[in-house]
Amino acid sequence: MDQINSNNEPVEQQVEVMTPEESVMSPEMLAEMEAQKDQELYGDNVKKIGGCAVVTVGDEVISLELPITYPQLLSAIIKRKYDSDQAEAITANFLNTRLQAVPENKAAEYVAEYEAYQEWRNTAKAVAKEVMGVEE
User: Is this model's pTM higher than 0.85 or not?
Assistant: First the structure.
């Protein structure tokens, strides 16, 4: 809905426009982007295909455009199996078992889900460290 000023005339909303200098990449910027695509990756769990890193963890395959960082890779591996909503639900259910707010039969199920989630996170950390060449 248009805003109305004190003169009862519609107020035009400002649209941000980029100057030509802001939208054009310099040759140096392009060279830096290309150089980052030559990022060194390590281990048997990764292959570089074009400008992407293709990481295999068990039966899961994750593809990320280079360059990548350890946190980006770790997050992508974890989210390949558990999205944010699932991770939050698993954690909340586990906390409820610790507060003894759920029946015993459900508690065992929630603990098993949490342990599987933590095992996947630990695997993701190990693979991400190997691929990125991070020392433990």
Answer: no
